[in-house]
Amino acid sequence: MTTLTAGGALLVRLKAIGVDYVFCNSGTDFPPIIEGLAEAAAKGIALPTAVVIPHESAAMGMAHGYYLATGRSQAVIAHTNVGLANCAIGAINAAVERVPVLLFSGRTPTTEKDRFGTRTVPIGWGQEMRDQTALVREAAKWDYELRFPEQAAEIVDRAWAIANSTPRGPVYVSLPREVLCEPAPADDLDAPPRMQPSVTHPNPKLVAEAARLLAEAENPVIFAQHGTGDAGAFEALSALADDWGIPVCQYWAVALAMPTDHPMAAEANPAKLIERADAILVLDALAPWSPQLHRPKADCTIVQIGQDPLSARTPVRNFRSDLSIACDVADGIRALKAEMDALRLGRADRVALRREAVAAENAKARETMLATAEAGQSGMMTKDWVSLCLSRALQGIDATVLSELGCPMAPMSLDHHRAWYQEPHAGGLGWSFPAALGMQLADRDRLIVATMGDGSYMFSNPVACHQVAEALELPVLVVVVNNAEWGAVRQSVLGVYPGGYAARSNAMPLTQLSPVPDFVKVAEASRAWARRVEDGPALGAALAEALDHVRNKRGLALLDVRVRP
């Protein structure tokens, strides 16, 4: 029987199950990982590409973005407890957004002498924990500590299958150094996975009932928050909404579910829609509306469709669900459309009147919003103007925009299922920049635009992200929408205390980020193209120049755009 170090066997198995990249931040627990990489390479064994990521939060963000672009789980390997602690925010983001990251970290040796791989430096004692997994256990679907070298391959298979079972999410495995140093069987490491994910499918009876409820409703409404899952479902939802004259509200959307200029695309404020709704379809939404502000009528029927329509991992989430359908949202949309297509006969006149009214209301709301965005170029720019200007710059380009408290979705013209992603509802900041790098790594020919607030840019460990972009030649466009404050915090204070002392103060406490660092110089330190824009009418030309650099010179470009608080 041929053997590899257990560290090498684990990496080889990751490649066999479809992992393209292992995002690593190495430490003193990595010798068997590094030796395994070298040994497998010397023996001509296929491996995933292992890349050095200078900060673990960036590694998690890149794995997250790669999955959004490809639908394939990637791996992150961190350094013992300290590296795992830096992964925790990314793990929380992945858990809330159901992204199946395969997270590993070393574990400090448990022996002090007389065993290969034992402790050799003082941090071997300093990094020991009674329960290292506790750092990410609440975010992980499943966790394990590798105990024997012969387990390496089968544990990889189990981790992958569980992570990709619905509801999907990250898993965690700790890797003690002594175990990784031991020889493991190398035969059949390229065999098919020993187990497959368990995936739920829409229940036909429940789908038929949901279709009947929506078809018979006078004022049905659809809420979509996490997109549609794939291009086919994106088209199906757009057609379903148009066929039946049903408004689609993308309240706090994380991914695009419908073109922003579709006649049935409603404004993001759901108040009017909820007030009159007699049937509501919720598509994969953690919080489809705010119960404090929006309360459906008692006789309104609510249907929820998603991987976990009741969001079981969230302790408090008491949105009513009269009909709960567990499935991937793409499958649910397609099944629902098929059922509703069969119910259209005899309803054409009623639907036509509703469609006309909904389309007129949506068109008026969009016209008003775009006029407001256009006016935002005067004086110090608004975020809405930046968003509108970016949308115009991207016209005709097949691009993906990520926003982390950056450019709002509403003023943009977006028309495909991969057009838009917003920060996870977990709120783990520093996501947009590394997620964009992961997307770009997955699709080097696609234009990826990462927009973010100035606080989010600082949270992303920008020096680490710029280093990765230069090292891997990832030509992302970064737009920092810079208002020199924690804007989301200020808005939250105003929402709770609209007439309070903080609202009346000249500088609201604990929200200011002045003096703002020179982000242009941060980017230029890694030889990126970077400019500051303070004049609204000049933004279009600056975006055109930045896009030219990204697309033709294949380098990262950054715009530091100053906007109103």
From TrEMBL:
The keyword Disulfide bond does not apply. Signal peptide: none annotated. Keywords: Thiamine pyrophosphate. Residues 5-133 form the Thiamine pyrophosphate enzyme N-terminal TPP-binding domain. The keyword Oxidoreductase does not apply. InterPro entries: DHS-like_NAD/FAD-binding_dom, THDP-binding, Thiamin_PyroP_enz_cen_dom, Thiamin_PyroP_enz_TPP-bd_dom, TPP_enz, TPP_enzyme_TPP-bd. Residues 207-336 form the Thiamine pyrophosphate enzyme central domain. Residues 414-561 form the Thiamine pyrophosphate enzyme TPP-binding domain. Belongs to the TPP enzyme family. PANTHER family: ACETOLACTATE SYNTHASE CATALYTIC SUBUNIT, MITOCHONDRIAL (PTHR18968:SF13), THIAMINE PYROPHOSPHATE ENZYMES (PTHR18968). This is Thiamine pyrophosphate-requiring protein. The lineage of its organism: Bacteria, Pseudomonadati, Pseudomonadota, Alphaproteobacteria, Hyphomicrobiales.
